[in-house]
């Protein structure tokens, strides 16, 4: 926990220092420092940090003894008929021709996710400090210290794919999705975002989306069964007592506040329409988390846009109010992080 607190303190320190001084390219400097910090924390963690780190090490060591053909034979058959994700294991085996140490491999995975994340925040966030603090509180445990397959898939379809969504380059976006689906099939869930990203927030559209959210909550069981069948992850089953209540309330609260201030948000940043539509899609998937917590994997693809939406909300306040909201948000995120931060240790 101490290491995480040091990381948070450094983020706030860099942010305050660069805000208070007219340093050239201060935005780029801050994002660079923050990105490097997270690469270090993610890549240099011990195998005991993160629920799946030790398991992925066992798979990494096991695959070193297998020939390349073991990962290329039946590749496409596995992609379309089985629950395995052969693209990830092929990628891992190819990397092992250069990297044979698991710790170096973790650093590489951290770079594959954190560098696109840093650029995503640098390019599209109005308040990079708040965005990195939000990542530290809401998403670090999954993307920084737990999942490897979905971490890589998310880097491709969301953090890189979003640039093609904005540029309206469907071919390149679908190519990334096709690659990502071999790494983690759940990445297919991000495809509808391309077609809804620019959807205007008319009253009819919002009423329809909220009707869909309510309908999917009522009929979440058949929707859950359909997605499990399509994805091929037939090991998932409904669980009594499941439900990401706190996260669901937080996401819905942010969405409602954003809709309340949508005129100001869109006046400041017309591209924020993408953030609204991403969070509406995230809300549609929230009912699934009340059947199986693993369904949060689907929500994560869209909820990353919280990193961009919350700073936009902060920006709608008047200058004096904005400072109060800004520092209050920083303090609140810090307190939430202190409450939730798990134990951490470096590999040495």
Automatic annotation (TrEMBL):
The chain crosses the membrane at residues 102-122, 129-152, 172-197, 204-223, 243-260, 272-292, 298-317, 324-347. It comes from the Bacteria. Keywords: Membrane, Transmembrane, Transmembrane helix. Pfam families: EpsG. InterPro entries: EpsG-like (IPR049458). This is EpsG family protein.
